[in-house]
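Example 4.3 (complexes with small molecules)
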Amino acid sequence: MSTPIVAESKGFELPREQLAVIRWNIIFGFAIFAIGVLFGLDQAFNYAKVDLIKDYPGIHSYYQGLTLHGVLNALVLTTAFANGFVALTTARGLGRKLNGALLRIAFWLLLIGSLLAAFAMLTGQASVLYTFYAPLQAHWTFYLGLALVVISTWVTSANQIVTLRNWRREHRGERIPLMAFMSVATYLMWDIASAGIAIEVVFLLLPWSLGLTAGTDPLLTRTLFWFTGHPIVYFWLLPIYISWYGMIPKQAGGALFSDTLTRIAFVMFILLVPVGFHHQFTDPGIPVGLKYASAVLTFGIFFPSLMTAFAVMYALEIAGRRAGAKGLVSWFFRIPWNNPSLSAQVLAMLAFFLGGISGLMNASFSMNLRVHNTAFIPGHFHLTLGTAVALSYMGIAYWLIPYLYGRSLWSPRLGVIQSFVYFGGVLIFSRGMMMGGMEGMPRRTQLALASYNLPAWHIPGIMAAIGGTIMFVSVALFFVNLVMTVAAGEEAAQGDVPFTETVQPPAQTGWEAKLDALRYWVVASVALSLIVYGPFLIAYLPPHLNIRPLQFP
Amino acid sequence: MEAYEKSFLVASGAVLVAFLLALAYSVFAMGISMPGRMEMIACTADQKLRKVLRVTPPFDNPGVHETAPGKFDVVVIGQTWSFAPDNIELPVGAEVTFRATSSDVIHGFMIVGTNVNMMLVPGEVSSETYKFSRPGEYLLLCHEYCGRLHHTMSGKVVVK
Ligand code: HEM
Ligand SMILES: [Cu+2]
Ligand SMILES: [Cu+2]
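Answer. The structure with copper (II) ion bound is encoded below.
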């Protein structure tokens, strides 16, 4: 009765050369992560008023380091991981090889783009933070690099669409296997969402940084940025959801309950792209009505996230009960916690739950006025991006790296320990940052050298430094395990990508089957975006290119 | 669909509606408002914004202006890396409308311990009204990264 969420459920192997490109993506992503996280340490100490950045070789300022931390972690690592991992899940979902040329092109675009941006940042010509708000100006290589990174995701998406179309031609009338559905939906959402940043960079920032226009329009660039800046969160999250929905139930020894609910959750993310105005609650120049409207839509996002919580927890419960758990909560302790891939990702889910609560707080704009741009915000998103996503990457790596290298994990035990250490660290770190934020402790500020300070920030800052150090140590343990696996892990059979089965199989007829008509969801999402952003843009355009640039090393 | 799935969907819907009602209440009943569409400052690419501001009301005259008994307009310009004025003195109970802008990059304008929290975008005017009912010295700071010495951009509001 249960149905596997992939085609070719007996087994499937990608051609070696395609697997190699996926491996490059993942390894490149983690190499970037290793650099990005170095700056987390000095930032955490900064809030305890300890200045470490002066000892970082070649780095001129706190903000240069912060730019590297944000761009490398939030933009490059996430894209590299998604491009590699979701290409793999598309192929495995369909039991079909990808287009090899597109796969390689996407990787090279990502690599060259990242190197260009890294050049600008490391030479101190792009200390503009990962939000690069104009009229702060970076060297043109920074913008060009980011544009190439975005284009690499479009090429990845094209590859998925081509592969899906070929599969469908041979499987007329069949439902898209769930793992492939989730994968393709993730990138379709991102294709729409990334339009804002692409327009901003290509039409406004790049020509401006090349001196082709004298000035730029800060409010318009900011608005385009946040059009993407909100749903980029989905782009970080959805590859992880593929693992949470599609793999964790299997790894835990359970099964995913509902095929339909899972597809609905992904479709909702496609529809809920245009809510970026909620990042501009405190901006002048944005009509108040739009702010209210996007506040309403924003609450809509909690819906698919609650569905996810339900679906995944239920899958874990099935697993715990299969393992013999009886009581109300004992199932939670019966899942295989000694598997580092599982422990990391279940802890990531718990962090996401806490992050969700703090997210609700800052989505309500009355609270937002208290915490906007304070340390509360990084406190919040190190639970979501910094843990729910990043710790899940590490959890996935615990099977993916052995899978890609045909070796077994060097030390599963160290992996389990590492995941708990990270979780403990982030709880302390985020608690401190949020506490400080409620007292007005600003984010993105070199507090160690600031001209002001408040006694209420003292304890929170120390908590941030302690928690941040623990997280940093944990990441180091992760890399030890990773390197040792590649260098000295025992050779093992390659195995297969873990995939679950659904208890409720996909319906073959009726409205549920219509969920697979992805193109209509894309059209609906574009229409919704036009409704929310169209009137503002019509009233606002043409751009007011009158503000001059400023550059700081 | 299973009853289990359905009841979960209904329950999460109910939670969200409750949050929205609370939000609506905070806006309408408690009178919390956000900065909305305001006027823009006319400036062309070959003009220096700083110079334009010097002749554009109200920014030609930054500072504290009493508009009616107990009511004040406080006009502030943010620039790298200071506020003008950066020492704002007000009587207890003052009902203040801050009108602020930036003459270069994006700055922040936060008065710690109050609801005053705005972005200052060059070319745009930000406004926010707040009543200072308690005496004390409030920290005013820039909480948007605005360049190398961002962390030195601060001021104070003294209420007595
Ligand atoms: C060792 C672990 C980490 C530590 C100690 C750490 C610490 C910090 C601190 C203290 C800040 C705030 C800096 C400021 O506002 O002045 C920050 C910002 C940030 N972190 Fe982390 N972090 C860590 C890992 C991560 C990870 C894994 C990610 C994402 C994958 C991440 C993404 C970010 C982003 C996007 C920012 C915002 C940058 C900005 O405001 O421009 N961090 N981090
Ligand atoms: Cu500033
Ligand atoms: Cu600043």
